[in-house]
Amino acid sequence: MTVNTGGRDAKRDSGTPGFTFGRRAGVAAMGLLGAVTLAGCSTADWERAGMPEPVTEQAPTVLNFWVGSWIAAMAVGILVWGLMFWAFIAYRRRKNAEIPVQTRYHMPIEALWTIAPLIMVVGIFYFAARDEAELTSVTNTQEQTVNVVGFRWSWTFNYVNENTYDVGQPAYPANAAQGQAPREPVPPDNESAVPTLWLPVNQKVKFELTSPDVIHSFWVPNFLFKMDVVPGRTNVFEATPNKVGTYAGKCAELCGVDHSRMLFRVKVVTQQEFDAHMQDLRNRGQGGQLQTGRTTDRAQAV
Ligand SMILES: [Cu+2]
Question: Which of 4, 5, 160, 192 gives the lowest tally of CB atoms within 10 Å of its CB?
Answer without folding.
Answer: 5
